[in-house]
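Dear support,

I submitted the protein below through the web form. The confirmation email said the job was done, but the results page showed an empty box. After a refresh the structure appeared. I'm attaching both so you can tell me whether what I see now is the final result or a partial one.
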Amino acid sequence: MQYNWELSNWPDFTFSTKEIEHFLYDFAQETGEVNALLKSLPEEIRQETLLEMILSEAIKTSEIEGEFLSRKDVMSSIKNNLGLNKTPDIIKDKRASGIADLMIDVRNTFSDVLSKETLRNWHNYLFAGSKHINVGGWREGNNPMQVVSGSLGKEEIHFEAPPSNRVVGEMNAFITWFNETKPRGAKEIKDPLIRAAIAHLYFETIHPFEDGNGRIGRAIAEKAISQTLGRPVMLSLSKIIESNKAAYYQALKAAQRSNEISEWLKYFVDIALQAQLDAKQTIDFTLRKIKVFDLFKEKLNDRQKKVLQKMYSFGLDGFEGGMTAKKYISLTKISKATATRDLHELESLGILVAFGAGRNVHYKIKEF
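What the results page shows now:
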């Protein structure tokens, strides 16, 4: 079995856009609508939506790699980075602060050229202080870099990257390609999704770092979209990818067997379009949250406001398992009778919807 980097035409990718042209058009329409919608929102709502989007991407790109971070820690890290906390929160989890710093840097520097220093800084964000890998440096040594699954003795090799002694040359070529395909570049690729799809596949194939290639590769895809559009993109690719990781890895695996990548483009464009549609839902969710607190502000007690804020903080994904009387008690430190009464009031106001029965009653936010 040969991999794409072993073929004589590497990395001259070929493809047809015939089957995806209408999806490319749909994405252009949707991203334009999202941008216009954001501009029409009050600054407070626009900022809240942006924070939710950055949080979602940070959390989900980490979950794809098996890292499950605290939403609170990641959000606090994002706000610290943006200077939104009057007194910066102390974040003990370096992974949370690292991925937050990476997400902010990708957005802030989207128009800058890509460089070795950029990629190494991103790697440092993810692994600062780690003693187990070569932080900020390309991988070295003679051991093959393989993507493997399965138990010991029953491993399945999905992909093997170019040997370490080729990484410097491959990365120099990749960085040159990325910068030449940007707007007004010598080899400009005008469609943001085509460029992002190729960039992600190209980088993941080289797999230049000992660890963190997936997270950085997805950051590169976001940079490519934003740079080609001329503005920071408002979507979370990782949220959609994480919802079906098996399909993502299968698409990558297939794409790394050939330099004809039409099927990979179909997969990536579909993911990006789903992500853009999800971004519209996130904006709508934020507007509904503001509407609830404005409409019922005189009818909610402080306990109810606190619990609703907690539930809304979990965004479109929802509060895990829904709200229960037990969780309500834990959050507000009140009696069971009071918790039950508060929840019933929120249901009667039409803010929450109950599901389950008896002791298994749970509540979720009603969609307005």
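Response: this is the final, complete result; the empty box was a page-load delay. The longest strand covers residues 156-160.
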